[in-house]
């Protein structure tokens, strides 16, 4: 196991918030560390292009983005946040990689929106007999991955072109990324084997322990939700409603929502561990989620967005805030034909 390395956030946090993550900073920003293409697999979708366009980034207000539409950046700060988020999910699931156990017999596993590939790498290591494919719009995946893992630079909003179905499809953290969830669920259904599993997980919006009128948190949430709705890619957890999956033909096997504290205020030991990571990921993610969204869709000035983010951070760091964030899981199955 790699040694743990300490995360150094860009802002001050209490001394007791000392999250450690696995040392998997795999030269994510270097073109030389571009992921292997899955063109070694005859069943892959669009192979990783060798053209320079794959590695181009759009710089806006000091942050780097993979394309002109997706609200989250793909720069080093965001990659660090994604690494923390991966560890946070692992803590919530008590060390497991998914809520639904992936069958040992699984031959093909797909990770949509793989990001830095942490989940796909862990799954490929745990299931060496399975072919694992991770797709994303950003080329931020590492080299030196298990031989059964292939990364694709691909947009899940387009038609999927796989010729062989999957046993397990994993979606995580895609709130605000998709405008037509019905179309994406239809693609997932089409590309699952009969009895195959789709698992979705995501965090909702931050909430304070008490309903404080005119709080900066409520202002932040309201502005981001309004901007996302205007831009056509809603934030929140509504896309995980049971009815949306059933309309695509799935049978929903289970849903569960965890209330994750932000910080260490919970007396529960496991929640303290997850809460440490969730707090840092939230503080790091405020600007990431809001900067492009509010400047593009609500015409805010960048300095005003950053000022609001700082005020939200101050509010969340207060001991009496007792802030939390919902973490939702949904497991659906494609019925046998």
Describe, in plain words, how this protein is organized in 3D.
The chain has 337 residues and is an alpha/beta fold. A seven-stranded mixed beta sheet has the order 7-6-5-8-9-11-10. A two-stranded antiparallel ribbon has the order 1-2. The radius of gyration is 19 Å and the shape is globular. The protein has seven helices and eleven strands. It has helices at residues 76-92, 118-126, 181-190, 216-231, 242-247, 269-297, 302-317, and strands spanning 4-6, 20-22, 58-60, 63-65, 108-112, 131-136, 149-153, 166-172, 192-203, 251-261, 324-333. The longest helix has 29 residues, at 269-297.
Low-pLDDT runs of 5+ residues are 1-35, 37-52
Strand order of the largest sheet: 7-6-5-8-9-11-10
Total beta strand runs:
11
Order of helices and strands: EEEEHEHEEEHEHHEHHE
Global morphology = globular
The amount of helix comes to: 25-40%
Distance between the termini: 42 Å
- Total helices: the number is 7
User: Based on the structure, what is the oligomeric state of the protein chains?
Assistant: single chain
| Radius of gyration based on Cα positions | 19 Å
Q: Calculate the mean pLDDT score and round it.
A: 87
What about the largest sheet? 7 strands, mixed
Percent of residues in β-strands: 15-25%
How does the helix and strand content classify structurally? alpha/beta
